[in-house]
Write a structure and sequence with these properties.
Blueprint lengths: L12 E10 L2 E11 L4 E5 L6 H9 L6 E6 L2 E2 L10 E4 L11 H11 L4 H14 L15 H13 L5 E5 L7 H18 L2 E6 L2 H7 L2 E2 L1
Parallel strand pairs: 3-8, 3-9, 6-7, 7-8
Antiparallel strand pairs: 1-2, 1-4, 4-5
């Protein structure tokens, strides 16, 4: 993994005038937002206000009707998801039940054709950084909620994305574990100097995690 101390900096994310309707309902209405390099910004608001749709447009899973998404000034809005240097952690984690932890974490690298030796090194680094190396051979059904969340996070960071997108990442955890994982995520994001955008409806969580709140 590339750490902040290696000379790599975070990327700047600029969202300009994004628009998306579902039928006659406006989900995103001319949203403009700039995220400084290496910052963690939370999108704070109630359910149904368009936070997740915005994240999915940045990732490329939803196509905007208007507007632009730029990383370090380069437009990515016309690129398919696999060609954007973004990684999204979904609220449900989305782990593959038939794959062990190693297989889940390395899935994105395998899809990108990363050579096996490089893949193994990066998987090992991601497992150590998220402190789940001892779980490498387990399957999702054998993991607690907190452990599954760490696997999903390891899978997100192993591709070394420019932009990390997290959709209500702690929603499935109990209060004590949620607060612990908030601290862990913040430490990890700062150590990697990765630009991150986090969706939440929890004001306390936003205040605890963020450099900036939208």
């Amino acid at each position: 993994m590339t750490a902040a101390g290696s000379g790599t900096r975070g990327r700047r994310l600029d969202i300009e005038g994004l628009v998306k309707h579902f039928g006659a309902t406006p989900a995103i209405d001319s949203v403009t937002l700039s995220v400084p390099p290496g910052a963690l910004v939370t999108l704070l608001g109630p359910s149904g206000c368009g936070k997740t749709t915005l994240l999915r447009m940045i990732a490329g899973f939803v196509v905007p009707e208007a507007g632009d998404v730029r990383v370090d000034g380069r437009s990515i809005v016309r690129l398919p998801p696999e060609r954007r240097s973004t990684a999204m952690l979904f609220q449900s984690y989305g782990l593959f039940p038939h794959m062990d932890v190693t297989g889940n974490v390395g899935f994105g690298l395998r899809m990108r054709g990363v050579p096996q030796a490089e893949r193994e090194r990066r998987i090992g680094d991601a497992l150590r950084m998220t402190r789940i190396a001892e779980l490498a051979a387990r399957f999702p059904a054998q993991l607690s909620g907190g452990q599954q969340q760490r696997v999903a996070l390891a899978r997100a960071i192993v591709t070394e994305p420019d932009i990390l997108l997290l959709d209500e990442p702690f929603g499935a955890l109990d209060q004590a574990l949620r607060e612990h994982m908030q601290v862990e995520l913040r430490k990890l994001q700062q150590s990697l100097a990765t630009t991150a955008l986090v969706v939440t409806h929890d004001q306390h969580e936003a205040l605890m995690l963020s450099d900036l709140i939208a």
